[in-house]
Design goal:
This protein is an alpha+beta fold. 24% of the residues lie in helices and 33% in strands. The protein has a nine-stranded antiparallel beta sheet with strand order 7-6-10-11-1-2-5-9-8.
Length: 238
């Protein structure tokens, strides 16, 4: 959703005030992959996941920072949530600009173009809360507000969801592979080896430029709901 510069200034003011106060199935018989699909398969085949390194719960800001950096996501400012069960979990957001694919790096292939999950002019946002969140039934609630200072374009309420789903779906779309393709199995295994407890992701077409961003919203915690104040940061989209 595109919005006006005046609306974004008002939203930014509010944010600052707040801060201050996929089942896998065998693919149908087909010819051997070629072009972008072949490049994607070769990149995925090179993954060596280590599920034993995974932790089910992020137990501190340091662990959240490590997880984001492992995915190539640059952390934003830490933030805190207020939950209806009277707990106050901390959290950390972050962003990475394309061309880039978490786990795999830059998959711009000469002669084939850009098959990355995050393409040029796009930013992948990540959000990692600290603690235990029973959120398997609903991954909505978190969102992104952004403003490109070079183009004066921006948006409010860009939705976030499961980080692994966002990465897999974007990569499959750009590489021309069905999201349920067995070709994506290595990437799915690698992402499943990372903590997913309360973790969110969102892909936004910001255009090239310096982008001011705020990640905020809600995460379910069993029968409770946690309201997170904005995690603020700057990313440069190429």
């Amino acid at each position: 959703m595109k919005i006006s510069f005046r609306s974004l200034v008002a939203a930014a003011t509010v944010s600052v005030a707040l801060v201050a106060g996929s089942a896998l199935g065998a693919p149908a018989a087909s010819a051997a992959p070629t072009g972008e699909a072949l490049a994607a398969k070769q990149a995925l085949d090179a993954i060596t996941p280590h599920p034993q390194d995974a932790a089910s719960v992020i137990d501190g800001i340091g662990a959240a920072n490590t997880l984001l950096k492992k995915l190539g996501i640059t952390p934003f400012t830490p933030t805190i949530g207020a939950c209806t069960d009277f707990t106050f979990p901390s959290a950390l957001g972050g962003a990475v600009a394309g061309p880039y694919t978490p786990i795999l790096g830059d998959l711009t292939v000469r002669g084939l173009g850009d098959i990355n999950a995050v393409r040029k002019g796009e930013i992948l946002y990540g959000f990692v809360p600290v603690g235990t969140f029973n959120d398997s039934g609903n991954k909505s609630g978190m969102q992104v507000a952004w403003f490109n200072v070079n183009t004066f374009q921006g948006g409010l309420g860009a939705p976030m969801g499961s980080l692994s789903d966002v990465i897999i779906n974007a990569f499959a779309k750009h590489a021309g592979i069905p999201a349920n393709s067995a070709t994506l199995a290595p990437l799915k295994v690698a992402l499943n080896a990372l903590p997913s407890n309360g973790v969110r992701g969102g892909l936004v077409d910001t255009g090239s430029g310096t982008v001011l961003s705020a990640i905020y919203g809600t995460v379910n915690k069993g029968n409770a709901t946690c309201y997170f104040f904005p995690s603020l940061g700057i990313a440069t989209a190429r």
